[in-house]
UniProtKB/TrEMBL annotation:
<comment type="similarity">
    <text>Belongs to the CCR4/nocturin family.</text>
</comment>
<feature type="compositionally biased region" description="Polar residues">
    <location>
        <begin position="8"/>
        <end position="20"/>
    </location>
</feature>
<keyword id="KW-0378">Hydrolase</keyword>
<dbReference type="GO" id="GO:0007623">
    <property type="term" value="P:circadian rhythm"/>
</dbReference>
<dbReference type="InterPro" id="IPR050410">
    <property type="entry name" value="CCR4/nocturin_mRNA_transcr"/>
</dbReference>
<dbReference type="GO" id="GO:0005737">
    <property type="term" value="C:cytoplasm"/>
</dbReference>
<keyword id="KW-0479">Metal-binding</keyword>
<keyword id="KW-0460">Magnesium</keyword>
<dbReference type="GO" id="GO:0004535">
    <property type="term" value="F:poly(A)-specific ribonuclease activity"/>
</dbReference>
<feature type="region of interest" description="Disordered">
    <location>
        <begin position="1"/>
        <end position="37"/>
    </location>
</feature>
<keyword id="KW-0963">Cytoplasm</keyword>
<dbReference type="InterPro" id="IPR036691">
    <property type="entry name" value="Endo/exonu/phosph_ase_sf"/>
</dbReference>
<keyword id="KW-0090">Biological rhythms</keyword>
<dbReference type="InterPro" id="IPR005135">
    <property type="entry name" value="Endo/exonuclease/phosphatase"/>
</dbReference>
<dbReference type="InterPro" id="IPR034965">
    <property type="entry name" value="Deadenylase_nocturnin"/>
</dbReference>
<feature type="domain" description="Endonuclease/exonuclease/phosphatase">
    <location>
        <begin position="96"/>
        <end position="374"/>
    </location>
</feature>
<protein>
    <recommendedName>
        <fullName>Nocturnin</fullName>
    </recommendedName>
</protein>
């Protein structure tokens, strides 16, 4: 699938440009994903037309570790407790944010000059990705650059008790890579035993009312433990220098969609920002903390804060890096990924720390130890008591 596939997909999505919000599931919009997708034989098998996956996360994690037995040690990361919580009876809500690196881009366009080709193979990376997810077992999992949703992540994680939504990019660069697995996009998974879904939508982000190639998944969930609602979004903003203005506009558009969704569920008047429905916004913003889109979020009337600032001594500084890679243009070590949360209604209980430079190694990411050029962000949250 190359330029022809891109043109076919672009033709299909042109009809959507007048409406940035699409119903779920979006799979019917994707001509590259037939209804009966070939499932990954290492994790799934077809039985009378239904996918059967390993039902036990411990069993699946053991399978991943066995497949990776010849690799270097995993990064040792530990949770830093921020707040012990008011009650030991309420299990915190664990959230993972991760740009997992689209397989087609890793092999074709991203040019990680210090990473051996063998380390970029899907036969190895899929085990590393699932191992990372299964190690931390988040209740909410937000992923970007997902191009193996239908054959791997959706059937495997469904078998482990997750529900999910996926939104592909309208013009995914993956489609220009020979032998690709379809378009990449954003995926949001949630533990069905912890949450029930109230509403979900796919958003094509706009800039000055013009639809762009970037997307978001926005979901309203209700916690089965507390009966409280939570609005969760996952997004991936425009990459590269020179597009700062576009990222700022996309961020503003996403905030508008979130505000509208919350208002629908609280029944408040338009413009009323008072709500006890917290927001969680996970994403690869492709923006450093000094960019305008970051300032828009931090100064938003929605009272948002960035959870990973909790790792700093002053509580005001982002990590030095969430991505570290070497490309032909040079080395890039910076912070682009964030977990935003409503600080008036949510409390950060713990944050997973970052691996050290020594752990990452001189060839940086991805590597035989780690499958992506972005590090996963993992936080434990709990609801604040209503006043």
């Amino acid at each position: 699938m190359g330029g022809g596939a891109t043109r076919l997909y672009s033709t299909l999505t042109q009809a959507l440009s007048g409406s940035p919000t699409l119903p779920f599931p979006p799979s019917h919009l994707d001509p590259h994903q037939p209804e009966n997708t070939n499932l990954d034989p290492d994790f799934c098998q077809e039985q009378r037309g239904s996918p059967v996956c390993p039902p036990d996360p411990v069993e699946l994690l053991r399978k991943c570790e066995e497949a990776l037995r010849d690799r270097p040690p995993r990064f040792h990361r530990k949770f830093i407790k921020i707040n012990e919580g008011d009650s030991a009876t309420i299990i915190p809500i664990r959230v993972m944010q991760w740009n997992i690196l689209a397989q087609a881009l890793g092999e074709g366009l991203d040019s990680f000059v210090q990473c051996p080709l063998e380390a970029l193979s899907w036969s190895r990376r899929k085990y590393l990705i699932l191992e990372e997810i299964l190690t931390y077992r988040p209740h909410i999992l937000c992923l970007q650059e997902v191009d193996h949703y239908y054959d791997t992540f959706q059937p495997v994680l469904t078998g482990l008790g997750y529900s999910s939504d996926f939104c592909p990019k309208p013009w995914s660069p993956c489609l220009d890579v020979e032998g690709n697995n379809g378009p990449d996009g954003c995926a949001l998974f949630f533990d069905h035993s912890r949450f029930e879904i109230l509403e979900s939508m796919s958003v094509r982000l706009s800039a000055m009312r013009i639809p762009t190639n970037q997307v978001a998944v926005v979901t309203m969930l209700r916690c089965r433990t507390t009966a409280r609602c939570m609005c969760v979004a996952v997004t991936h903003l425009k990459a590269r220098s020179g597009w700062e203005w576009l990222r700022s506009a996309q961020g503003s558009d996403l905030l508008r969609h979130l505000q509208n969704l919350v208002q629908r569920h609280v029944g408040g008047p338009e413009g009323d920002l008072s709500s006890d429905i917290p927001l969680l916004i996970c994403g690869d913003f492709n923006a450093i903390p000094s960019e305008e889109v970051y300032r828009r979020f931090i100064t938003s009337p929605l009272s948002l804060d960035s959870a990973y600032k909790k790792l700093s001594q002053d509580g005001l500084t982002e990590p030095i890096y969430t991505t570290w890679k070497i490309r032909p243009t040079g080395e890039c070590c910076t912070t682009l990924d964030y977990i935003w949360y409503s600080q008036d209604t949510l409390r950060v209980d713990a944050v997973l720390d970052m691996p050290t430079e020594e752990q990452i190694g001189p060839n940086r990411l991805p590597s035989f130890s780690y499958p992506s050029d972005h590090l996963s962000l993992v936080c434990d949250f709990s609801f604040k008591e209503k006043e």
